[in-house]
Amino acid sequence: ETTFVYVTHDQEEALTMSDRIAVVHRGVCLQCDAPEVLFRRPHTRFVAGFFRGSNVLEADLVSAGGNGVMLRLAGQPITLSAHGALSFPQSRVAVAVRAENVHVGESARGRRVVLGGRVIDVVYRGTNVDHILELGDGQRIVATSTQREIDSSAQAVSVGFDPEDAVILED
Questions:
Q1: Candidate from 2-6, 33-37, 139-143 with smallest mean pLDDT
Q2: d(Cα 14, Cα 111) in Å, to the nearest integer?
Q3: Cα angle for residues 17, 162, 107 (degrees, 5° grid)
Q4: Contacting residues for 97 by C-beta, under 8 A, at least 6 apart
Q5: DSSP state of 44
Q6: Which of 46, 57, 120, 144 could make a disulfide contact with 99, Cβ separation 3.0–4.6 Å?
Q7: pLDDT of the residue at 93
Q8: What does the alpha-carbon distance between residue 38 and residue 74 come to, in Å, rounded to a whole number?
Q9: How many CA atoms lie within 13 A of 99 on its CB side?
Q10: Which value, in Å, is the radius of gyration of the alpha carbons in the chain?
Q11: Residues β-bridged to residue 133
């Protein structure tokens, strides 16, 4: 068995070639994990932002207990798993949700977390369409789909995701 250490800034290359990836920032390893875990379950804002497509949202911490963490996101109560990420006392937390796990319009209504929002822009990118939205509290969120989900002229829309697709960040 041979071990290779390969240094790259090419995210796709790192994700496809690696058994494990270490994200290093300012000489500190922030997270070392399997590619899919690192991509879908980042621990910090930097790691979430490193792999394009993560929305990082601010939420108020309401309570934490055995059933998870109760948050208020854009005025709506939601419950997420903490996975040991919280250090008390804190009143605000950051939540990461990948853009491909955010749904808008009709497809949002079947999700367990549904928030109100409004359309800012719809950007066609070839194989994907980004729906840029603003939540009721002014935070921006992007929903990425393989097709246009809403008309760019639409004003009020539903924005949804499932709790298992959201992760509470450590910072």
A1: 2-6
A2: 32
A3: 100
A4: 54, 55, 57, 141, 161, 165, 166, 167
A5: S
A6: 144
A7: 93
A8: 26
A9: 20
A10: 17
A11: 119, 141
